[in-house]
Each structure stands twice: as C-alpha cells, then as structure tokens.
Amino acid sequence: MTARPAAMKKRHVAAVFVGNGLEFYDFLTFSYFSVYIGRTFFPSDDPTVSLLASLATFGIGFVTRPIGAIVIGGLGDRIGRKPTMMFSFLLMGAAIIGLILTPSYAQIGIAAPIIVVLLRLVQGFALGGEVGPTTAYMAEAAPPHRRGVYLSMQYATQDSAALIAGIISVIIANHLSDAQLTDWGWRVAMSFGALIIPFGLWARSSMPETLPVADDAALAPDATRGTLKFRERYGKHARIIVLGLVMLTAGTIGAYSISYMTTYALDTLKLSAAVAFGVPIINGGFSMLSEIWSGFLSDKYGRKPVMIVPGILLALAIFPCFWAINHFHNAWALYGAESIMVILAGVSSVPVIVMLTESLPPSIRSGAVATVYAFAISIFGGTTQFTIKGLITLTGDPMAPAYYWTGAMILGLIAMAFTIESAPGKRH
Fold this sequence. Notes:
- By secondary structure, this protein is mainly α.
- The protein has one domain (10-206, 231-417): MFS general substrate transporter like domains (Growth Hormone, Chain: A, Up-down Bundle), CATH 1.20.1250.20.
- It contains 19 helices and no strands.
C-alpha cells in the first residue's frame, strides 16, 4: 500500500490539532454554561427542572454522534481523511453560529428549545464524524515510535479547548451578573469559538492526504471498492473493538464527571460562579499536561502499564477526593481534589485511544475508531451529567458522582487487563 507522506509539515499536523481542539470549544462551553442556558431556553419555577432540561439538551447532542461516526468516519476510509475532516468542521461551525443566534424562549416561545435541540443534533453528528478521521490521520502521519505522543494530542487539544473555555468563562463570570450571564453572557463565550471557523477551514484545506491505498485483495475485493460484509471487515478485530468500547466507556464517564464539576460547584456545593468557573481551568490545564506526558510514557514503556497503574490509583482516589470536596466545602479543596483526579484520569486515558487505533488496519481505522468512540460517548457521555444530577436529587447524597465513576473505572480496569500490548517494540 502507499506509504505515509515522507515529510509531513508541522503546519499540517497543527491544522489537525487546532481544528480538533476548537471544534470541542463550543461543545464544552454549552456544558459549562448549562445553568444559564437552561434559564434562557427552558425557564421554570423550579431551578432543578430548568437545569435538568438543559443537561438533557446537552445529552441529546450525543444521540447523533454514532450516526456521524458511521457516515463521516466510514467516508474517511473510502474517500480520504482530509475531505471528511473539512466536512465535519463546516457542519460544526454552522451549528455553533446557529446556537449563538437563536432567540430565547421569552422571545419566540417553544420554537427556541426546538431549534436548540436540532442544532445540538447537528453538532453531535459533526463531532461524531470528527474523531475517526483525525485520529486515523495522526496515526498515519506519526513515526511509529512517537505514535503515543502524536495521538495524545487528540485529547490534549480537546483539553486545551477546555482550558481556553474555562479562562474565558472565569473572565465573563467575574464581570457579569447572574442576569447578564443568562441574557447574553454565555453567547459571548460561544462567540469566541465561532471566530476560529475561517482559520480552521484555511488550515485544513492545505493538508495532504494520508489514507493508504489498499493492495490486499481481502480488503479490496473489487475495483469499485465494494463494501465487505460486516463480519469480514470487523470480525477478526472484535476483541480489541469490544475491549476498546469498555475502556472508552470508563474514560467517558470519568471525563464527563470531571466536566460536570462546574455545575456541581454551582448547583450542589452552592459556590460562587467565579469559583465554579475556575474548575475548567484546572481541568484543561492539568489534563493537557498529563495527557502529553502519558503519550511520552506509553511510547517508552508501552500502552498497558501506562493505562493500568494510574487507573488503579484513580479508582482508589475518587471517593476520598469527593469526600474532601464536600467536607471542606471551599475552593482550595475543590481545586486540589479535582487536580488529583484530572491528572490520574489524563495519564490513564491516552493509551486507550492509541492502542485501539494502532491495533486496527487502515482500511477500517477511521470508521471503526469513530464508531467505537461515538457509541461510548453517546451512551455514557450524553447521560453522565444528567445521571449524576438525577442521582444526587433522588438520593440526596452529594457523593453519588463518586460511586458512579468508581464503578465505571473498575470495569475499565478489567478490560485493560485483557488487552494485548500494541506499542512497537513492546509487544510480547
């Protein structure tokens, strides 16, 4: 098959990283401002009902992620990584601008939440299709001995977006009142993401293609690239696909438990907006650094030990961290405990996507990675924040997120134990 381009320019690699991170900016901003977005589009006399409606709308964006993964991710294996990345970016940009411009419930009534739900469905479709082609692209662009570092940027750039969103959120929260945040403050935060759409399109338009041309008759049975039966294409890779799904599910529940902490600080702990919006800065900063470090470690020591060791430490740390947050009930406890969980989660999560990607052949890599990732995200990412809030409301126990996340982490560790090392030079 054709080889990866010999001289991948840094600006082309950066185009993937920047585009990937910026696509997540507005998707995450919706979560950070869910309290205020709920008041804008789902007004209610009961603040809990309003917040749950907002979180459900955040979650509904995950419904179309598997569809986007199958459609756009599959196209990435047939027509190339570059055109599918361009398409997903355009869709995401259109949905972002539409959400910013949507009038409130007070202005247009029931049409407002309907429009928001439709735009979230478009966002989910675009984001579901983004992950597979970008991950496959970086796996094919990276030198094999540095694949962990390159693919760590898939997560790190998403968290850089979380960091930027957090910084902007803190600035806005410190300068606006509650009423202003509800009326237009969250729209300003999202608008910063819209500003990068032209740059993202320009950066991606100049990228070379990395999709190898299959020369294996078993993978390309005819000149028209007809689709193979599902069992023939994916059957022999079922083990890593299933294990990858379980591991990504555990990571997803952890990631969205972490991203819920802004709302947790506002709604459960009753801390100020200024304190609550400091959480995304902690999350984004420490996640980004720990994920890049994880990539280096996984290239040096292998994927399995870098998944499992910090994963065990995380499972042991979740409960005491939440206990400290609720016992001391201040910004220092919140930020300190959050930092511990974020670092351990960041180191443990990166090798999962690296192992899954490099264990799959190029002919199915984009579609399979996108689909596995999207199903884990859509089923559990889309429901985690709603479930956490529901459990807290139902039980009256602010420790509910700790129980939920710890259980998921234990299942993820079991799956990690059954994986086969995939790092070049580290396989046994």
